[in-house]
Amino acid sequence: MNGISRRGLGRLTAIAGGAALLSSCATTPARTDAPPSSPRHTLGPIKQIKAGLLDVGYAEAGPADGRPVILLHGWPYDIHSYADAAAILAGQGFRVIVPYLRGFGSTRFLSTDTFRNGQQAALGDDVIALMDALHIDKAILGGYDWGGRTANVVAALWPQRVSGLVAVSGYIVVDLAANRQPLPPDAERGWWYQYYFATPRGELGYRHNTTAFNRLIWSTASPLWHFDDAAYALSAAAFDNPDHVDIVIHNYRWRLSLAMGESRYDADEQRLATKPRITVPTITIASDFDGAAKDGAAYRAIYTGPYQHRILDKIGHNVPQEAPEQFAAAVVDVARMLNR
After folding, report:
1. Gyration radius from the chain CA atoms
2. Which keywords does this chain's UniProt record carry (predicted)?
3. Angle (CA) 128 296 169, round 5°
């Protein structure tokens, strides 16, 4: 989180090598107000539904017959990142679904025997299972961090289920081979927490200090966002999940090839390793968190359907909570792409 991100450095490397096409991007007009310190809206009562391997907790807003939008949160955040954006979208007639990812909030595994797997293909499969359980054939997907990665995974593997995509930080699908390569020391420093999680001490430290640890990540990933104690407390409650630490530790160890995934996801991971093009209408959003790579050029070629790239200055990592109006506007504009 400190300095240029690992994926940001990868993008700049690709640009230097001429591997990426320049994107046409627009800088969103500067905000006249600071990011909200706390959500201005509340999410509705949490519902539960059995979907695949999970009993998924989710919030829902908007008319039942509205165009479905599924918003996916990241780490170390939760569904309250979307409290304001969901209210905006519901007010415009969308049916908004905001689920807790595995290991967060009220989402639970149906079986104690299921491996607590945090790999990207598993999270993507969770979204498809949720859509099936809710009888949603197609939806616009939006996300950031883990949620942005998961939305990209679903759009890449199951494009027939995705009507449109809003992806913060663009294409951040994990490339295991690339992640095994070292970076310059200053870039490596930015990923200290991933290396911390790779150790027994780090796992124990996260287990003992989850709330304080995640608050540190909030502050370093969004240095200009002055969130208040109430906002953090809303999300911190989601970390009090019996599987949270196991999922987080496995996710980051898997990314570094220090933990195995499950064979049931091998075919999906093999497809993702080929970097399949994403054909659905897409808007990518970059923020200050993306550093010098915020122009989006390194991943422009991945998106072959209708496409826009937007840049938000003075906004950190938690884009939908820091800039809910701009995030919601991107969802609305993706929906307009479908109507052209």
Report:
1. 18
2. Hydrolase
3. 40
